Amino acid sequence: MFDKDKKLIFSGIQPTGVFTLGNYIGAVRNWGPLQDEYNCIYCIVDLHAITVKQEPAVLRKNTLGAYALLLACGIDPEKSIAFIQSHNPNHAELSWVLSCSTQFGELSRMTQFKDKSAKHADNINAGLFTYPVLMAADILAYNADLVPIGADQKQHLELARNIAVRFNQKYSETFTVPEPYIPTVGARVMSLQDPEKKMSKSDANPNACVYILDDKDTIIRKFKRAVTDSEAEVVYREGKAGINNLITIYSAVTGKAVAEVEREFEGKGYGDFKLAVGEAVADSLENVRTEYARLIADKAYLEQCYKQGAEQAYSISRRVVSKAYKKVGFIQR
Ligand code: TRP
Questions:
Q1: Ligand 1 center to 198 CA (angstroms)
Q2: What is the CATH code of the structural domain delimited by 216-292?
Q3: Any idea which fold 8-186+299-328 has?
Q4: Is the CB of 10 under 6 A from ligand 1?
Q5: 153 lines ligand 1 (CB under 6 A)
Q6: Which end of the chain offers a freer environment for a tag, N or C, measured as fewer CB atoms within 10 Å?
Q7: pLDDT tens digits, residue range 140-170?
Q8: What does 198-246 look like in DSSP terms, one character per residue?
């Protein structure tokens, strides 16, 4: 199904809840168009998820939910490979081999490990420590060229690159050394309650963050409560972080330029503007919401898609893992 001339993008998604409006505008909504330009593999990383405490029933529900959301956001299982990590044993197998080419010291320096150890002090398990090796295996098992990542995963990708280079030097050319994929578009969406901070699902204030499956009323309510300033001018300028954020969001979902937005709301109050932004956001997310509802109700279709995805993922990664096994000196079965 993949075109040999196109570069391969591998993306791993944690099955922890819904994307935020920030994820959507900054990245997710560009995934659909990306599928024509690249060979894309999307993986719901349930093996990674259990490095922190999970309620089994909740993990099961979130994994399927994350998978359905991927499709609802425009990932087409006929164009891309979308699967669930635990359905392909090659990730865990390669992870073991790569862990023997990774140093204890390197893993000790990972800032996410340090942060998560501090946060989950009662559960500093070995999987949390070797998390970045499994992530390297995810990527290297497909010889991915590009990996879309945010700033928080930069160090992990750097480690994956180092592991690939080291393995290639030790055992001869085996893995592609992956590059970060930096999307060309994507505005930065800030918190609705503290517009100096990035919009984040870990925000304590539930009004700070819009989720892409929020219903229309909820979205409008959150925008009505958005923090602005004591002026009354819808213009984009320094010192108006709240209004700047709303203009950015409105411009991103309507495609209107900033100057056009300023003209549209000239002489109008913040109340009108906030309502307009809320409505525009809700409208732009409506397709995702209805598509998600349709998919999550159709378990048979989802199953058919993730089974097919797992088979495709297995066959690509098996070749790579077999090659790595041969290189390290394992006897072929
Ligand atoms: N660690 C990534 C995150 O928390 C998820 C992930 C797992 C991933 N494996 C990956 C991302 C491979 C990119 C490539 O967001």
A1: 20
A2: 1.10.240.10
A3: Rossmann fold (3.40.50)
A4: yes
A5: yes
A6: C
A7: 999 999 999 888 899 999 999 999 999 999 9
A8: B--TT-SSGGG--BTT--HHHHHHHHHT----SS------TT-HHHHHH
